[in-house]
Design brief:
- The structure holds two protein chains of two kinds.
- Chain A is an alpha+beta fold.
- Helix content of chain A is 21%, strand content 31%.
- Chain A has two domains: 12-23 and 106-181, 2-Layer Sandwich (Gyrase A, domain 2), CATH 3.30.1360.120; 26-105, Heterotetrameric sarcosine oxidase (Alpha-Beta Plaits, 2-Layer Sandwich), CATH 3.30.70.
- Chain A starts with 11 loop residues before the first strand and ends in an 11-residue tail after the last helix.
- Chain B is α+β, with helices and mostly antiparallel strands.
- In chain B, strands 9, 10, 13, 14, 15, 16 and 30 form a seven-stranded mixed β-sheet that branches. Chain B has a six-stranded mixed β-sheet with strand order 42-43-44-41-35-45. In chain B, strands 47-48-49-46-51-50 form a six-stranded antiparallel β-sheet.
- The chains are: A alpha+beta, B alpha+beta.
């Protein structure tokens, strides 16, 4: 629907790395018992993925699923189809204690790509971003300077960040500042 | 005089001349100079004035231990006080000003004063002198002391720092702090195991002081070995080398701060000036070297008196000599190296005084062979006062300073032995042992700082461990690197044996006072702490006055409390204290070492948090619209909410009055998106909410809403809001704007720690939804119009959506959830849509609402509307000491429930005391607005002779609806005193008279909201 607008309208900046707001993504907070076969089946049906390991993200052509806590997952699906997926999960898990809720509009999404991407993130997130330590499929729920955020690396070498929508401007300015062309650290290049 | 030498200077590039200025004087130096070496090259011996006595001071050291040469560096928005000349690399256009003098460095009034009065300025002087008469401190003493004391000037408060800063997180197996030969060897040993290694060096060059001191390592001159080793380490993928980066502090859990100075040597080149490295290291090796101790003799602070090894640094590294006729005093062999270096550079060494009757070892023989006069058992009695060294009186070390011989000299090199730099070892609890032979404290490897697993996480290497000879240093460093790597989980390795040259040195002698029995006149001129002007006599006086603890003595005398944290003075000071107390040095102990090792910039600590990323601002989806439409912003937590929408020609107060009247009479819109929205779901959700709220939530029917109160375990009102039951298992709890995260955490805490077996999940969906309150007599008309335009939608009639009901559906084509709830007393709908559609929805409301007189309203109007209705506000009527019963909210507290959070507490005697202040309305007799927070006074006086208070104002506003001031307040026995008039004294002496009334000022029957 054209009425729906992401927080920054796709703003982007090129410095040590390319920083861009990637628009609206479909996201579902799913809480439940990871060990339950029903739960695992519901996750698989919604995203095409198995429940990921601790601090991991699994992805398929249908969607992706990230580990948020011992009883919480973040499901990434198509924005337009979120409500249908939530309904499908709720139906599948009707007899099982769980919580599935659409959080797509609560979020802002960013991509950080290019040679300096690891260093740009390592300036603001307390995470070991050395190659080999953080690779495709890794996922962290952490903070970016003063705000909460989560990020992962995809197979194409692009970092994806999600944070709360209300702090989208802060996150964007923070990442752009970290990507200042004259602020290269030079340890991961 | 100090001057540039024709040769020498391994760090300078004589082909690159650099211009700079000192106190406005244009001077020249070379690339590679520090400000200190360049000043010496220009015969600028006098670099500052001391803190208390304004004594002329010169350079004492060549590194970060320098206490005197603090300057104001830069100008305008790049000005920074208290910068060390020794750690400031010279750059073109550098501008430095000396500090702490008036009217000029050369002639200073403070010095004249101190010569007249210095006998009064002893230890504890401030404590003793300025305590009486009491009022004098504020009006006379403090302004005077502030004028005369203090180091650098604060930067101009109107200017903002021109530079930027940043942080960087880094993780490694082994962090090596210090890039001297020991640090490099430790890094090499650790890296050989495959460990990920980071090496930090505070200076711009590698190798530390060994290339100056000389020696062969693995068959190479030290300098060549350093170059080769650095190249080897740089070539390794698992090693990162970082110069100009100081290890500033060691903290729990292997957290270490590194302070990188990126552009200090080239200001304005762009990019961040400093970078704070926030490092997590499995193991840390401190290869921080050692610091030479001064000797305590009279006049040891006269410009030209310098540490012997530092003088050697100036000659070898930068090709400058502090004098042409140098006298050396020492208690150990190392200072003989200075004699050799000076001699080789063509500087005359007029005398080498060795306190030891038996003299030195191999080096002493070499010095004698050069024809330098060496005198054993001799000492400096006094260096003549002045702005530079001219004459030195010498005497026997083992005496009182009599039978002096005068020698002409223009510089003095002193060495009192070496103390390992134990600061970083000690930051996190590493303990020290006293080494009698070297007369220094060194790290005790058996009592290292320990991590969460109880195992050591810091290892020392090289002279930082204690050993002072090259052979021992290299062996220690190789072992330290291997040990750290192994402790970090790498395979154990045999420690390589490193071949080095060897020099046989004689035993040093502990000398804490020179001469040993110096009389009081000499002791009053023997400086321990240069920067804070603490002398031998001050510490002795403190001891005589009963100060036995080194920590107390430190504070009483200010020894070691300056910006150098006593790097030169601590050991000498506590040795004097121990001697005076008749105690052993280890019994007296040391003061506590705290980070940072050396001062770091405030900018680096703040990092990139400045300007628009100083603090995150939370913005609702409609923020930009509000901003473009006159929003006068109010911070609510990290949110910014419109306080009012001010139109041109209006004051904020005018705007508020307009918004209030328009909402009551026509139609208002409020951006309520910031309200907390928590989904609580599960078979036990009802039971859970019954515990959290004071009333019953489990009985709520799906489709209905209920207002509820939450209290802390202590019974105090914590949050309030409307709960909607979505389905059998699911509730949506609204919280206050500021309470969303707090109440979410509160729920999770109870679920995770107490009721972990209850089947309840909570999710915070505050930001998923944009919420708009559509308020006023025309509210329904607007929604019906939108639905008509969209060709249908939710039934919003009184019957279709009754008061305190909610419904899902479409409004104006937007997928929405509408609540018939009212915080204003008017016909009101709160409508939630997806946050991404919030702006579009708002636009549709504004556009369609024109014919109904729609206006947005801000938080102040929200407050006034609720106050007119007598609705309480968390944070106004509550302050953490108020229980619901105080606010007349008994109706919202269940008497049927067996338990809820706060129930037990609310039964305590103090909580049921009828004397508790209770909520009432307040109307001023003259219609004016009561001052916020004003207290009501009653009869009589309290124990302090003050009038007794009987109540206070909690909310007060001008009500445009009623045309008068209205207020709520808590008043003793308030509800029983309706109609009484009580007094509220204002700040300006005016007494406000207010009548106690019902807190509901408007539409008490609630007819308007229920239409």
């Amino acid at each position: 629907m054209s009425k729906a607008q992401s927080a920054l309208n796709g703003a982007s900046y090129a410095g040590l790395a390319k920083v861009e707001e990637t628009g609206l993504g479909g996201m579902i907070t799913l809480r439940g018992d990871f060990a339950s076969a029903g739960f695992q089946a519901a996750v698989k049906a919604a995203t095409g993925c198995d429940v990921p390991g601790v601090r991991k993200i699994a992805s398929s052509e249908v969607g992706a699923v990230a580990w948020m806590s011992p009883d919480e997952l973040l499901l990434l699906v198509d924005y337009a189809g979120v409500d249908a997926v939530v309904a499908q999960i709720s139906e599948a898990l009707a007899g099982e204690h769980h919580l599935a809720v659409n959080v797509s509009d609560a979020r802002a999404c960013f991509a950080v790509s290019g040679e300096g991407a690891r260093e740009v993130i390592a300036k603001v997130a307390p995470v070991d971003l050395a190659p080999g330590q953080f690779e495709a499929g890794d996922f962290r729920r952490t903070r970016f300077a003063q705000v909460a955020g989560a990020f992962w690396l995809d197979e194409a070498g692009v970092f994806h960040i999600v944070c709360f929508r209300s702090v989208a401007v802060y996150m964007y300015n923070l990442l752009c500042t970290s990507a200042h062309p004259q602020s290269k650290v030079g340890v991961y290049a | 005089m100090s001057t540039r030498l024709a040769k020498q200077g391994r760090l300078i590039d004589r082909s690159k001349q650099i211009e700079f200025s000192f106190n406005g004087r244009k001077l020249k130096g070379f690339a590679g100079d520090t400000l200190a070496s360049a000043l010496l090259a220009n015969d600028q011996m006098l670099v500052g004035r001391s803190f208390k006595y304004h004594r002329p001071r010169g350079l004492v050291a060549s590194g970060s231990e320098e206490p005197n040469a603090l300057v104001g560096l830069g100008t305008g928005d790049r000005f920074e006080p208290n910068q060390r000349a020794t750690t400031t690399e010279l750059f073109s256009g550098l501008s430095a000003q000396s500090q702490n003098h008036w009217p000029s460095l050369e002639f200073d009034i403070g010095e004249v004063n101190s010569k007249l009065f210095s006998r009064f300025l002893t230890a504890g002087f401030y404590y003793k002198m300025f305590i009486h008469p009491r009022p004098f401190w504020k009006h006379v003493y403090e302004p005077f002391i502030r004028q005369s004391a203090g180091l650098g000037k604060a930067p101009n408060k109107e200017l903002k720092d021109a530079d930027t800063y940043e942080h960087f997180y880094f993780f490694c197996d082994v962090l090596v702090i210090g890039g001297g030969v020991a640090g490099l060897q430790a890094a090499k040993s650790a890296a050989a195991t495959g460990a990920k290694v980071l090496v930090l060096e505070e200076k711009s060059y590698w190798g530390g002081r060994t290339p100056v001191d000389g020696g062969m390592i693995e068959g190479l001159e030290a300098e060549a070995w350093v170059a080769k080793t650095v190249a080897e380490l740089e070539a390794m993928d698992n090693v990162t080398l970082r110069s100009r980066t100081m290890g500033a502090g060691v903290y729990d859990h292997g957290y270490i701060l590194g302070y990188e100075r990126l552009t200090d040597h080239a200001p304005g080149q762009g990019g961040p000036r400093h970078r704070m490295w926030r490092i997590r290291a499995a193991q840390t090796v401190t290869a921080t070297g050692a610091i030479e101790r001064p000797l305590s003799f009279a006049g040891n602070d006269v410009p030209g008196v310098m540490l012997a090894a530092s003088m050697r640094d100036y000659v070898v590294n930068w090709g400058v000599t502090p004098g042409k006729r140098v006298l050396i005093a020492t208690n150990n062999d190392d200072a003989y190296r200075t004699a050799i270096v000076l001699h080789e550079a063509g500087v005359e060494v007029v005398r080498l005084l060795d306190t030891r009757e038996t003299g030195g070892g191999d080096l002493a023989d070499r010095v004698r062979a050069l024809g330098i006069r060496v005198e054993c058992g001799r000492a400096i009695a006094k260096v003549a006062d002045g702005k530079r060294v001219t004459k030195v009186a010498i005497c026997a070390q083992n005496g009182e300073g009599g039978a002096r011989e005068e020698v002409e000299a223009d510089a003095v090199a002193m060495s009192g032995g070496w103390s390992p730099v134990v600061h970083l070892w000690s930051h996190c609890g590493g303990k020290l042992i006293w080494d009698e032979a070297q007369a220094h404290f060194r790290p005790d490897p058996d009592r290292a700082p320990t991590g969460a697993d109880g195992k050591p996480f810091v290892v020392t290497a090289g002279t930082a461990s204690g050993p002072l000879t090259l052979k021992a240093v290299m062996a220690d460093a190789a072992a330290a690197g291997a040990k750290a790597a192994e402790a970090a989980g790498r395979p154990a390795q045999a420690v390589a044996s490193i071949a080095t040259s060897e020099v046989v040195e004689a035993q040093m002698e502990a000398v804490w006072l020179m001469p040993a029995k110096a009389d009081i006149q000499l002791r009053m001129k023997s400086w321990l702490d240069y920067q804070n002007d603490v002398k031998v006599s001050d510490v002795q006086l403190a001891a005589r006055e009963g100060y036995e603890s080194v920590e107390h003595t430190k504070r009483y005398t200010t020894l070691g409390m300056a910006t150098d944290q006593g790097k030169l003075s601590n050991i000498n000071g506590l040795a004097i204290l121990a001697d005076t107390l008749g105690a052993e040095i280890p019994q007296v102990g040391t003061t506590t070492f705290r980070p940072p090792y050396h001062p770091i910039s405030m900018g680096a600590i703040g990092g990139s948090a400045r300007g628009d990323i100083f603090q995150p601002l939370r913005k609702t989806p409609m923020y930009d619209w509000h901003d473009a439409n006159g929003a006068h912003w109010e911070p609510v937590g990290h949110w910014r909410r419109p306080f009012a929408y001010v139109r041109s020609g209006e004051s904020v107060h005018d705007a508020v009055n307009r918004e209030v009247k328009n909402t009551r009479e026509k139609l208002g819109l409020l951006d309520a998106s910031t309200l907390g929205k928590l989904i609580v779901k599960g078979p036990d959700a009802g039971k859970f909410l019954d515990m959290l709220y004071t009333n019953v939530m489990s009985s709520l029917k799906p489709g209905k809403c209920r207002y509820g109160l939450m209290c802390s375990e202590n019974g105090f009102l914590s949050d309030d809001g409307v709960v909607a039951r979505i389905d059998e298992d699911t509730f949506l709890c609204h919280t206050t704007t500021g309470g969303a995260d707090r109440i979410h955490a509160h729920m999770e805490e109870w679920l995770q720690t107490e009721w972990w077996d209850w089947k309840v999940y909570v999710a915070n969906v505050t930001e998923q939804l944009a919420q708009v309150a559509v308020v006023g007599p025309n509210a329904r008309k607007l929604l019906e119009k939108l639905n008509a335009q969209a060709g249908g939608g939710m039934d919003v009639s009184k019957e279709g959506l009754a008061f305190m009901e909610w419904k899902d559906g479409e409004i104006g084509g937007f997928k929405a959830r509408a609540y018939r709830i009212s915080f204003s007393g008017e016909l009101s709908y709160e409508i939630a849509v997806a946050a991404s559609e919030g702006q579009a929805f708002w636009n549709a409301l504004i556009e369609a609402g024109q014919e109904f007189g729609v206006m947005p309203y801000g938080t102040e109007t929200l407050h006034i509307l609720r106050a007119e209705k007598g609705f309480i506000m968390i944070g106004d009527e509550t302050d953490g000491t108020v229980i619901p019963q105080d606010l007349g909210l008994h109706w919202a507290i269940s008497k049927k429930k067996e338990d809820f959070l706060g129930k037990r507490a609310q039964e305590r005697s103090h909580m049921v005391d009828p004397d508790r202040w209770q909520l009432v309305g307040l109307e001023t007799v003259d219609g004016s607005v009561l001052p916020d927070g004003a207290y009501a006074v009653g009869n009589g006086l309290n124990a302090n002779g003050q009038k007794n208070t009987i109540g206070r104002v909690t909310s007060t506003y001008y009500s445009a609806t009623l045309g008068r001031g209205i207020a709520m307040g808590l008043v003793k026995h308030g509800p029983k005193r309706m109609g009484e008039v009580i007094d509220f004294p204002g700040l300006d002496g005016k007494i406000f008279k207010a009548k106690i009334v019902d807190p509901v000022f408007y539409d008490k029957e609630g007819e308007k909201q229920n239409v």
